[in-house]
Design a protein that fits this description.
The complex is a heterotrimer of chains A (315), B (322) and C (288). By secondary structure, chain B is mainly alpha-helical. Chain B is 75% helix and 1% strand. Chain B has 15 helices and two strands. The longest helix of chain B is centred in the first third of the chain and has 39 residues, at 20-58. Chain B is flat, with a radius of gyration of 28 Å. Chain C has helices at residues 80-87, 117-123, 138-149, 154-167, 171-174, 187-200, 217-230, 243-249, 267-272, 277-283, and strands spanning 40-51, 54-65, 69-73, 97-105, 108-109, 124-127, 205-209, 235-239, 252-257, 260-266. The longest helix of chain C has 14 residues, at 154-167. Classes of the chains: A mainly alpha (315), B mainly alpha (322), C alpha/beta (288).
Chain lengths: 315, 322, 288
């Protein structure tokens, strides 16, 4: 039987070292990494702003391209981007929010359907954007579009690249974003609100429509705006589903092709015969796209902050 | 004009009681429930349709003898060249795999140290004000569309790199890889930082109370505890890198070369699809091959995402005390 | 003889006794001997409730007469809120809840599968522990239930909102700011607003789950006043952990412990000479 007295004697522990030099250096390394990232972002933004700001005039924003994209403006690209994004939002937000409402209010947690939906939402978010482009072409244009042409007897109306198919492709790409943010927004509505409403004799849907949705609206809008910002920046999904480099007319119906800011940047950068001449236009376009994206993201962030403040103020 | 208080009848008498209204209401609610279920189903349908149609258009490679005369699995593996346009089309996928691998490797070697170290900094060491400056920078980086990153790499960074490294080739794997890494940093950073912050304070406090330095705590306690989350972040970044198109399309030179050097141009799978799909004839072997590439990309990113999901689940269990 | 229910006795329909329970406390009018027996408004028969595996309500049998205030008292976790919420099926909102036995509200069999829960909840109103007005205007809060019923005429809504606010003793304080947000009101005002909101849909029964526990003493007193005023029209059940409050405002008191109904009797009797030892122990503060 061993006792404290018979326990083996151990050598005394080394004293704890007060100032660990290597620790400080390594901590500094992490700070250095963070600093470098910030610097790199600053350099990129700075470069674009420096070379681009001169080009961004009201005329630039309002005029059409001239002289082989070396002069004029980018209005059609802006118009096309806006049209694309508006169509996308109309196709996306009602269904995305509907799915979020289902997941939050109706879905039994362990049913196979619920798990399938969550699995799909998670994995849809990870599909490469070029695969969405392939899908847009192979499904929307070739299958649905050509099929509709056959059924309605139309002559290549549905079965070709257009605003419609590009918008639907982008809508599917952004569906996970909207569903996740909308569900998160619904979760922030306190339980007491729902209880109060149901205790008054309101039905489930009345409660959702009149109490939950209004309170979740800032969060839902945040998700919608984020999806718009992503939609305006993605090029791969629209390359084959509707975007075009130069069109003499603005798109006047969802069946038309369209010019688009991101696509314009891509083509100008890689296929322009005289890069130096198009450089100002190119930088200007990039700056406009960046400003648009950041404006949208900023709005989303401010909305999210206002939503949090509203809830905190109420407690 | 409101009714005088004394004359207000009961709701029942006014006709707002139950029965007919309720029956109509119940029917409407049932319809709404079905509609909402349908909305949720769209996500499932979307994923299923993507799988079905991408794989369907790729199927001729495996099933059609006609297609296989030109493009076949054996050809993909054996042919050393990728020359789909020419007298005798050659569909060797090795250059594309090598190209993708090189660019992704450069991107991850560049992005992961930066992102993980910065995440450790943000969650463990940074004073609040510095953190409030760092997060917007990351969010800005996250908000830059990949076409803009590609543009920057093509127009500006390529020249800088060429000057610094003395490379003969301007658009190469290094250029595209670094730009791709920049695009991946926000993803890895955000997931890692969330994972680190999810580690309970008590872990750190216990370590510090035993006399460990903050660095030792971060490196030996917090980071390992968040290990599953960090792995998930890296995996998600990897998936993003593999699937990314615009950056490599613009900045890598798009030459289907098999070589070990990062200073050579490369052609990735995603860029090949983007570059060639516009000119391809619907239904041709080339068309099927491009969809086949898409199917491979989908499969790779799908597997990586599922793995990442498993890691996140493990992190959650671990921190909950399982 | 009042209908006293103890856990052992099998429930019988309330015996057709002659007189009302004698009014013992001074601030209630003495009932004339010829007044008929009040009908039972709420009743349960051997009602059981399970949260998953936990047996939260163990065979509750109770009958509450109309136009009275019944207080349910007991220590935390005894099941009083659970019982209260069973009357308007609010427990349905909690997953994993299972019930057995019968609950009736007036002529409705609450526990039956085919019961229209939405209509039930209109007829049985609820006021919660923490005031929970919607983040809408005062007017929209009170009008909410009416709008859900389909009432859209502005004039009629205004009349009914005003009536409800009068009944909740809140009209004078808010009549000039009906369009302002309800969240700007004080805690006590918000609770009265919730009561007004509940009254607007003309319930027969009002369930109150510790309605004053989140309020200061002045606001509490006003709520208690309101309950006494409302009892002439509505059947009220109040869950409270404040025994003095129960003694002040209720006609009958039920004492619960660990999911069982220990004693149910006239308030005066329960607080002065309770039948059960457990009741006495609780009232004298020996536990809980």
């Amino acid at each position: 039987m061993s006792t404290a007295l018979s326990a083996p004697r151990l050598a005394p522990l080394p004293k704890a070292r007060a100032g660990d030099g290597s620790g400080f250096a390594l901590t500094g390394l992490t700070g250095f990494a963070a600093l470098l990232i910030v610097l790199m972002v600053a350099v990129i933004m700075g470069n674009i702003a420096w070379f681009g700001w001169r080009s961004v005039t009201w005329e630039f924003l309002a005029a059409t391209p001239k002289e082989g994209m070396t002069a004029g403006g980018i209005f059609p690209a802006i118009f096309g981007t806006v049209a694309l994004v508006v169509l996308m939002v109309v196709a996306l937000v009602p269904f995305g929010v509907g799915a979020a409402i289902y997941l939050h209010e109706y879905a039994p947690p362990q049913s196979w359907f619920t798990r399938a939906v969550r699995f799909s939402v998670n994995n849809l978010a990870g599909v490469p954007s070029i695969v969405f482009g392939l899908f847009g072409l192979g499904f929307f244009i070739m299958f649905v579009g050509r099929g509709l042409d056959r059924v309605t007897g139309a002559d290549m109306l549905w079965g070709q690249p257009s605003l419609l198919w590009a918008a639907l492709t982008l809508a599917l790409l952004n569906l996970p974003t909207v569903i996740v943010t909308a569900e998160e927004a619904l979760r922030t509505v306190p339980r007491e609100m729902r209880e109060a409403s149901m205790a008054l004799g309101a039905t489930k849907w009345q409660t959702i429509w009149h109490v939950l949705l209004p309170q979740a609206m800032p969060g839902i809008l945040t998700g919608a705006i984020l999806s718009v910002s992503r939609g305006a920046g993605e090029v791969a999904p629209i390359m084959f589903t509707g975007a075009a480099y130069f069109l003499p007319y603005l798109p006047s119906s969802p069946f038309d092709q369209f010019m688009e800011l991101g696509y314009h940047i891509f083509v100008l950068s890689t296929q322009s015969p005289n890069v130096d001449q198009t450089k100002p236009i190119l930088y200007g376009t990039v700056l406009v796209l960046l400003l648009l994206t950041f404006l949208l993201n900023l709005t989303a962030i401010l909305l999210r902050a206002r939503m949090r403040a509203k809830l905190a103020g109420r407690d | 004009m409101s009714t005088p208080l004394s004359r207000i009848g009961s709701i029942e008498h006014a006709g707002y009681g139950a029965s007919a209204r309720r029956r109509w209401q119940r029917a409407a609610e049932a319809v709404i429930t079905v509609a909402l279920r349908g909305c949720a189903f769209l996500a499932v349908a979307g994923l299923l349709l993507i799988v079905v149609f991408v794989f369907k258009e790729a199927l001729p490679i495996l099933t059609s003898a006609e297609t296989q005369k030109e493009a076949s699995l054996a050809g993909f593996a054996a042919t050393p060249l990728w020359q789909p346009v020419g007298d005798v089309p050659k569909y060797g996928m090795l250059p594309l795999f090598v190209g993708t691998l090189k660019v992704v490797l450069v991107a991850m070697l560049f992005a992961v140290p930066f992102a993980v170290l910065a995440a450790v900094f943000a969650s463990e060491f940074a004073p609040a004000r510095v953190r409030e400056a760092l997060k917007p920078a990351i969010e800005i980086l996250a908000g830059i569309p990949s076409v803009v990153l590609g543009f920057f790499a093509l127009m500006v960074m390529a020249s800088w790199l060429q000057a610094v490294t003395g490379s003969v080739v301007r658009l190469n794997a290094l250029n595209a890889g670094i730009a791709l890494g920049l695009g991946v940093i926000p993803t890895v950073f955000t997931v890692c930082e969330d994972a680190l912050r999810a580690v309970p304070k008590s872990f750190r406090e216990a370590s510090l109370a035993l006399g460990a330095t903050p660095w030792q705590t971060a490196w030996h306690v917090t980071l390992p505890a968040a290990g599953a989350g960090v792995s998930a972040g890296i995996l998600l970044g990897l998936a993003r890198a593999v699937g990314e198109t615009m950056i490599v399309l613009m900045a890598s030179g798009n030459a289907a070369i098999v070589s070990g050097s990062v200073f050579d141009s490369v052609r990735t799978m995603s860029a090949s699809i983007a570059a060639e799909l516009a000119e391809v004839v619907f239904g041709s072997p080339h068309y099927s091959t491009l969809f086949f590439l898409g199917a491979i990309l989908f499969a790779i990113t799908f597997v990586i995402n599922v793995l990442a999901g498993l890691f996140v689940e493990r992190l959650r269990q671990r921190l909950a005390g399982a | 003889m009042t209908a006293v229910q103890t856990p052992e006795s099998r429930p019988a329909p309330p015996p057709p006794a002659a007189a009302l329970p004698a009014a013992a406390s001074p601030d209630r009018a003495t009932a004339p001997a010829a007044k008929p027996q009040p009908a039972t408004r709420l009743s349960t028969r051997d009602f059981q409730l399970y949260y998953g595996a936990v047996h939260a309500l163990k065979g509750i049998t109770i009958a509450m007469p109309e136009r009275s205030v019944t207080a349910i008292i007991g220590p935390s976790g005894c099941g009083k809120s659970t019982l209260l919420r069973s009357f308007n099926r609010m427990n349905d909102l909690i997953p994993g809840v299972r019930t057995e036995g019968e609950i009736r509200v007036a002529d409705m069999d609450v526990s039956a599968a085919g019961t229209d829960v939405v209509e039930l909840r209109r007829r049985v109103g609820m006021v919660f522990q923490r005031p929970n007005p919607f983040p809408k205007s005062i007017f929209d809060n009170v009008a909410f239930g009416l709008r859900m019923l389909g009432l859209a005429d502005r004039g009629e809504l205004e009349s009914r909102v005003e009536l409800s606010l009068h009944r909740a003793a809140l009209w004078d304080e808010v009549k000039d700011r009906l369009e302002r947000s309800a969240l700007q009101l004080s805690g006590g005002q918000q609770q009265r607003l919730c009561i007004a909101r509940c009254l607007a849909v003309e319930p027969e029964v009002i369930l109150m789950d510790e309605p004053a526990s989140a309020l200061d003493p002045t606001a509490t007193a006003r709520i208690e006043e309101l309950v006494l005023a409302l009892k002439t029209t509505y059947t009220i059940v109040v869950v409270t952990h404040n025994m003095q409050q129960a003694a002040r405002i209720s006609d009958r008191t039920a004492f619960m412990l660990s999911g069982n109904l220990i004693e149910y009797d006239d308030t005066a009797r329960v607080f002065t000479s309770p039948r059960e030892k457990l009741t006495e122990d609780y009232i004298t503060g020996r536990f809980g």
